User: Fold these one by one.
Assistant:
Number 1:
Amino acid sequence: MIPRTSHIILVAAAVLLTLLLAGEAVDPVLYAAENISTAAHADPSTIEKRSPGDAASVIPLMDELLGHTGTLALTIKIKDYESAQRDLARYSELTSQFDRLVVTLDLSETDIAEFQKNNRQNQEAMAALLNDSQRLDELQSLEIEVLDGDQRMAVVYEGEALRQKMRETYTAYAKREPETTRIATHYGANATPYQESVEVIAEVAGAAEDWQADAPRSPLNISVTPREGRYGENLSIGGRYADGVPGTPLTIYVDSRIAGNTTLDENAAYAYPYRIGRILAGPHLVYATAGAIFSEVATFDVLPAETNISLAIAEVNRTAVACTGNLTTEDGRPVQEAPVLLRLDGETLISTQTDGNGTYARTLILTGGEHTVRAEFNAAGYPLNSSRSGVVSIQVRGEGLSPFPFIAAIAAALGAGWYIRRRGLPPEPPVPEEPDIEPPPEIAETGPSVEIEGLPPRDAATILFRALRERLGIPATKTPRECARLAPDHAAFFERYERIRYAGETPTDEELRAMEREALGRAD
Amino acid sequence: MQRETRVVLLVLLLAGGALYLHTTTTTEEFSRHNIGWNGTSSLPAEEVRDLSRLDPGSTLLVLAPDRPFTPEEVGYLRAFLDGGGRVIIADEEGAANPLLADLGSEIRVRPGNLSSLERDYAHPGLFRGYVVGNDTLFAGVETVLLNRPAEVEGGEPLIETSVLTWDDVDADGRVGEGETFGRSVVCAREGNLIVLGDTSLFINAMLPENPKFIENLQPVQIDAVHSRTGSRNPIINTLAWIAERPLAVAAMAALIILPVAWRFGRKRE
Amino acid sequence: MAGAKKYHAAAVLAVWLLIVTFFMILNRTLDLEVFFVLSLIGLLVVAVLIDGAFSRPRYMRYLGYVIIVEVAIFAYIVAEKILEIIAA
């Protein structure tokens, strides 16, 4: 093949193009209209749609929560405790839904989070009021039955304790009302049922007051020092039991839940160290019981504190990374056993927990590429403010090149090669190499005579060609051109025959005779 | 030879078409000659260059103004407004505030990064505003898809966002320190003057999202001198200049036709 | 013209690639893998159509090699996509 300039240019261009394309092969999508935007606007046809689902339910949920406070307050007032319990269950369900919404929509630094905190406190207050109201009713009916002096005093003391509790609960509830209403009306939620509920609760607490206008003070007194504290600090709950016997067991209740047990010492006094852990910020109630005798109710305040959370990411192997960090308050106190959320790529939330030292560790398995992780602490149920770490981005190497595609490619190449060879579109070595493989053709001295009389000239030429081909020992599948190459001595014959056969030329008689001589090997 | 000539002609035709497209269009934002997603080539409007000769009672759109208005032009606009014409100023950057002050209006455009939590798209700046006022421009329209709008202060509110919208100052896509939720007004009216805080409503990619609004807009004229609908490309400007003057068009036509006619029209000797 | 069939085949392949490119630009996505697969389809169709039963012109010989290489790359792309789908 004579290399012509155009061929060379073509081959060079093809090689250059293949190299360029191979360079891009690692990232085959050369250009995609994805998220095209400028400072002034974004192209909506390239931005994916998503359902607004979550965000649209925030305000209706706020409405529902406020509505529930109204109905709960009314059911407590009319002493329909069964439906009040059902209402309360529904209310807590909605509250958890709202909590989850605040977390997924990342609203922790807005006033919606304030509303969420207040709502949680309202829910606990409602639960406490319901239980206290119910217990107070039981005591009222008990008082009528009991005639024994001691037992009567126990009932009186317990009733007094409940009254105080309800009064404190109401005060705190009313204090939360202006802020909550302000936030609710800012977002267009209906706060009227909530405002009415405050008045109803006032009536309920007032009704409790009326029952025992002047009750003697309980002999078991209680006080909290200091009166306020922050997360992790210790408060001392103590007092004296005037008629107490040393060694009597006492149970300390915080917010109507058992906080611990202690015993009276020789001076009929007791002290219990209480560590502020997972309780909400704000006012709390504490009282003690010695057997059936209830103490008075004391209050203490829990102040909110700021927290700091840190995040560090280390690569474990090609697909996994380990996220660790510390969660501490401003004063350096570790926050123990607290839930920490890791927000992956701004969307997925993975939960983990801190241990006794406030440290958390979690291994994540990620796909290859860039990812961003951020640690968040939501402070739900803690007297702490939520905090979030900075965004840490990591490059995950991802699984290495697996051998499977290469095996597939080699298998496909072999399969295609076999199929093409079978079909006869063969990538056989090109013709010029053939003389090595072919045995040298035998040249017979003279060939058999052939009859060409009476045939049309072109058919005669065909018979002569076949005779010469046979005489030279060339296989019958070879074309005239190939024969010419194989037997250069007779190239002229074969080329002439090729023109006769394929170009439609007609041999003259003289030519035919010359060809006959050559075909039959007669020297002349 | 015939076949090769045909192929060459075909390739030349394709190349010529590509060249034509390349020289007569541009990628500048808001340009009437930009056929891409951020141009205004599909907006059906007429361009006016002379503010003194406006039809009384028609609608004039000033789209993303970037040139200051001279006192005479302000005077013409004032006269146009008083004569019953409607002026719509669409501006996202606050460049129209001097004009609004000169026109004696209290409306101002406050540029910012309004983002909304209640949205249909993954981008926080792409959300729906609700029509709250009464205006023929928004007759039959309940929501308008906004594309990174700016807040508009003053005047009578026509379009308001939802309450879960905030000005994302630190552009982190969420409500952080110092950012609060609240309703914002993105379109306000004062008499016949309407100020729209979102210029993106008129680009090619956004026209199919608010079809009724664009329909209510018709017929509209665009102030070509002050809006950003022109182009800096000299070829396009030259072609546009020629197209506007019938004498120049006739001259061009004569320049092309006469030699051809002379070449083929001569009596064969 | 010598080898008219060869030129016709090359022209058809070029037109097919131009059509593919046109639609990719219209869709505003230029993906090399998609382009490669579609060009392979074009090449295979053209090779089958111009293949004669009785002769094996020079250009058909080398086409065999090209087809084998392209099929190998195609198999690689398919295997990669399968892995991606399984991993997801």
Number 2:
Amino acid sequence: MTAAQNATEALLHGRAWTFGRDVDTDLIIPARYLNMKTAAELAQHVMEDADPTFAGRVKPGDIVVAKENFGSGSSREHAPLALKGAGVSVVIAKSFARIFYRNALNTGLPILVAPEAVDGISEADELTVDLATGKIEDLTTGKTFQAQPLPAFVRELVDAGGLLPYLKKREGAK
Amino acid sequence: MGMTITEKILARASGHETVHPGDLIMARLDFCLGNDVTAPVAIDEFEKAGFDKVFDPERIALIPDHFTPNKDIRSATLVAQMRAFAKKYGLLHWYDVGRVGVEHALLPEMGMVGPGDVVLGADSHTCTYGALGAFATGVGSTDLAGAMATGEAWFRVPESHKFEFDGGLGRYVTGKDLILFVIGLIGVDGALYKAMEFTGSSIRGLSMDSRFTMCNMAIEAGAKSGIIPPDEITKKYVEGRFMREAIYYASDEDAAYEKTYRWKGEEVPLMVAKPHLPSNTQPADELSAVKIDQVIIGSCTNGRIEDLRQAAEVLRGRKVHRDVRCIILPATQAIWKQAMDEGLFDVFIDAEAAVSAPTCGPCLGGHMGVLAEGERAVSTTNRNFVGRMGHPGSEVYLAGPYVAAASAVAGHIATPDQIGGRRQP
């Protein structure tokens, strides 16, 4: 069993942190910190220019909930790394910018597209997320939501444990 | 049903007769690249996964351009890691300070990328090379690590959106104004996951430098790629420069576009994107109440020779306003030398602007012109997000070189006509 398979089976549980649309990668991790590259270092500055108190208050398992075009802008993989390093367990958004979407899957940060959930969840609500089924439950309000499942090809990549193990496996099969 | 230029390139690279939007393909890469922000993370991933060779040492460029000449110990350490990797694997395209330039100006200039290519870059502005008639897209570090190891990458074939401009352009209007005009209308996710194809007689009339500027900012509309079908201007640029054989593709007459937009070139005014999104646009001549502290002319968007000539046309015989710092960054060593030979630096120095070595530096608030709280810049770069060029309380207004140079003179946002027009040597 790879780590990714275990991760997709886990029931995630945490507090919702809500953000608006077009949360760009400069907000997620400002370029002034790109002379660093480890998740632990980057996590200390995650979302600093959107909410300077976020990095100090976010707890392992917490869930970022955002509107359209989350992760727009730069290709920096430091953005999903910083969120992972801070303990964010999943990002739920109405839509994702395409490079961030790739980077999140490649680095093992779960992401879900669920527009109705984003509209229905309020700041600080307590959530559970089942990655295997895409079911999102708001324990604070009792409402449940369904996220779009990942495309089959992407699930295959995630099941292999990420992009590089997937490519390594293909190389071995040649 | 015919294919778009993007679909034809991706069909060739994936070994298919045809591809359709939505298809997931594994494509052979003609070239890949990373910079001093993204490559170190890619190298870590490459080594962690246990790869011990690169797919082709002649098709990978590592370009230390973001924080170079190195601004601090941490950034110097990142470049040292790239340098060691480049040496270990014998990479042909490793360029250090003195040879390096801003990646998306350097690669086309040296002929590392060209028409018909599939290019994967660990930098969002990799879409710049679409100006050559290539499919080029930005990714993150892990994708680059996989590309360096295998020479392949997976893609979802994007739907194409066509942006057609016809007829002549207004005075001083360049590719920068056209692309800001488009982003202002469709928004920062108006082409999310799509290929933006720019066509029409206005586009065919653009120089290569203006075409690079347009494709460079396709990502600012959320696009996967931007592309301009190659023509005689492309061929003239590519011949004697491109290191491999060019393949010139064109879209079929009956190719399918998810959306088509049409404008007259003359509709486009000199544009500015106000804080804090590239889509927050307004005509430049309506913004003269905006006082500024700094002007940046350079970057992968507008640091090429034509951009510097435009700035010089406006700055010639004038002085930068006493309350403004004007910093000019030619994007490569070759552009630097060309500008020097043409006497542009005399114009800049006499105008009391500073000229820097090639670097991305200030565009991302790295170095060479970081903004303090409350300061405002007019910049020829591509992003004006919160904190992009420094303090989160600073502001960036995006514009082309004509407006940037005129604003440097005026001390507020201005067009060349508002300060008395251009001056020939």
